[in-house]
Amino acid sequence: MIPRRRFLQVAAAASAAAVTLPATPSLAVAREPEGTLTDLGPASVASPLGNGEFVGNVLYMGSRGLSPNVVGAWDLGADKVTTHFEIPTGVGIWAMCKVGTDLYVGTHSRSDLYKIDTVTGTTTKLAEYPDHFIWTMASSPDGKIYMGMSEPGRVVEYDPATGVSRDLGQPVAGESYVRSIQADATHVYAGIGTNAHLIAIDRKTGEKRDLLPAELADRDWVSSMSSSDTHVAGGVLSLAELVVVEKADPANYKIVKATAPGEKYVVAVLIHDGWVYFAGRPSGTLYRYHIATDRLEVLGVPFFEAATGRILEHEGRIYGIQDPGVFVYDPATGKLDYLSHVQRGYRAAAEAPMSVHSDGEYVYVGGKSGADLHELATGKVTRLSIPGEPKTMITVRDTTYLGVYTQAALYSHRIGDPEAKLLFRTGHNQDRPRDLAYDRRTRLIVMPTQSEPGHPNGALDVYDPRSGKVDTYRPIVERQTVASVTALRGIAYLGTSTQEGLGSPPVTPTARLAAFDLRSRKLLWEIEPLQGVASITGVKHTATAVYGLTNTGVLFEYDLRLRKVTRTLKVNNRGGDLVIAGFTAYTSDVDGVYRIDLVPFTAKKIVTGLASDWFGGGSKLNIDPSERALYGIKGRNLVRIAISPR
Question: Which of 294, 355, 518, 586 sits CB 3.0–4.6 Å from 366 for a disulfide?
Answer without folding.
Answer: 355
